[in-house]
User: Fold this.
Amino acid sequence: QQPAQFTNPETPGYVGFANLPNQVHRKSVKKGFEFTLMVVGESGLGKSTLINSLFLTDLYPERIIPGAADKIERTVQIEASTVEIEERGVKLRLTVVDTPGYGDAINCRDCFKTIISYIDEQFERYLHDESGLNRRHIIDNRVHCCFYFISPFGHGLKPLDVEFMKAIHNKVNIVPVIAKADTLSLKERERLKKRILDEIEEHGIKIYHLPDAESDEDEDFKEQTRLLKASIPFCVVGSNQLIEAKGKKVRGRLYPWGVVEVENPEHNDFLKLRTMLITHMQDLQEVTQDLHYENFRSERLKRGNR
Amino acid sequence: PHAGPVDSKNEAAMSELVPEPRQKPVVPMKPMGINTSLLGYIGIDTIIEQMRKKTMKTGFDFNIMVVGQSGLGKSTLVNTLFKSQVSRKSSGWNREEKIPKTVEIKAIGHVIEEGGVKMKLTVIDTPGFGDQINNENCWEPIEKYINEQYEKFLKEEVNIARKKRIPDTRVHCCLYFISPTGHSLRPLDLEFMKHLSKVVNIIPVIAKADTMTLEEKTEFKQRVRKELEVNGIEFYPQKEFDEDLEDKTENDKIRQESMPFAVVGSDKEYQVNGKRVLGRKTPWGIIEVENLNHCEFALLRDFVIR
Assistant:
């Protein structure tokens, strides 16, 4: 967005604080942004591929996929990878927190303990730093957003999905995502989305709500926000492979019966998800700070120093 | 008159214990070679026609069980296999039904007819398998059901006055649906197949295979086959029942190259190149279920039925 034009300093009565947003903007650009995205879902739902597609990078270069026999003994792990992405002078320090092992075990009863502990630990650390003497360089490792992957193969939410989301909806912004959406026809997608939304409401699960566009925003932005809100949960397809389709190279998946284009809005909601994430990164951080962190903080301080 | 030497002492003693031994044939039979040419047409080959007529009159019993997490397309696939509405999906099952809390066994019988041959087909569904948070021992109700059918049959078999045709409710075949994660088997898949491959013919299938490209399919199948082998899981056709070399070669090819079949099911028809085909319609093309370039449904059908 263009920085707001400031009025002529010669105008009588002009003080100059209209320039403040630009100063903040410049400072932020210099400082850079920090964003932590947690990714949760059973193995094989397309999480890593989607993350790589979203940020046009390979966050998992030396990945070894374990076999079923190995998975039997494993518990849920937390793996955080950080990348620094720069675009037009703006630096983003992006941390992706992976949770391999989630949903794989035969008995998933304890599957979310590790994840909840991790989220709480980051809040704890921030609280500690905030209350400390030297508060100049607090690193914000709090989880700002959690992409929860729902299987496209089921008929809606599974018992594990419901339990997990209820356990973290007061701690983190949940964005439900359906990956591998190319397995669903358009009708099946609509039906699945509706079913999931109904079940989310039925169980009282609080997912992240995009704020409505301000009344002074332009019509395009308002329309875009409306469209985004109507498409949740997003049905996406991820890929970083370039395929030849209709004479040009696109990112997609090549099947014997056709090509699925990742960036084609008629094929899936990938672009919508990306737009949502990018345009609401700041809001996601704000809600984490103002709502989830404050919740944690008040609970924690009430409990006293344990 | 006896043709051979007789031990008179023993003959008397023997006739008290066992009934009179059968008279030896008057004309001693010369051993017949395979190449013995008959002097004329006898009509022995009509026995095949006689058997066929008999079978048509009595019909077949076929009991097929389907096991797998909810939403993997089990009901649709069974309907596609038998080209009729024979699954749980079609007998008043409501798609909006909740996942049951424990594994249920639901057997639905239909009589279908083709070319004068009647088949009493029973589809045994197992809703609730693998859908809970804690899936420990969820195969037990299934194992119990299978053994109960064996028990029932045995009871009838050992009866003194037993029925001419014992109703056969034994499970002849169990289709196990593997989720197309593209990674590996899940711990639950291994546990189920380890326990049940000893009591029933398991045919593993990869469900909703339209979610994988050709390369992904080949890789996944290889990995699954290896995992099954490493864990000593004997799926149908089992090596120990290979009758002769011809059988073995044919079965080896199926075991080592084709299985597990990556399938797509559908009960909807679309027009493709002037023909009506069973398929799935997507914005990027129509997936033809019976097209071997698209998926291996036809292989599974031929394997199971023909």
